[in-house]
Amino acid sequence: MVSSNAISAASEDIISIHEVDTITPSQKLLASKLSCNVVQGKSLLLTGPNGSGKSCIFRVLRDLWPTFSGRVIKPSEGMFHVPQRPYTSLGTLRDQIIYPRSREEAEMKVLSLHQTGKMFCH
User: Does the record carry Membrane as a key word (predicted)?
Assistant: First the structure.
């Protein structure tokens, strides 16, 4: 599977998930065609049995897991999520810091930031 560019920033304070399949890194489908909208000031309760995909929705929203289908719209900033358990990927400390990027992607990002002068705040 190839990740699509299905996540975009909203100009409004809304979280919109439309027909998103939530898939684990091991390619297990947890939820199919998930859709919901959350507007600022409103609450949404997620319920379901263990392993049904409740936590993975937040992993998708925080860009820890890629989106393969559907569309996610979220605020460009100001979102905060406290997981039940700390989420760590496999690998070295470096792999943890750059996750979900690969080493090659992280190196390309650093090079791009360095070339544009945005590596360090002045």
Answer: yes
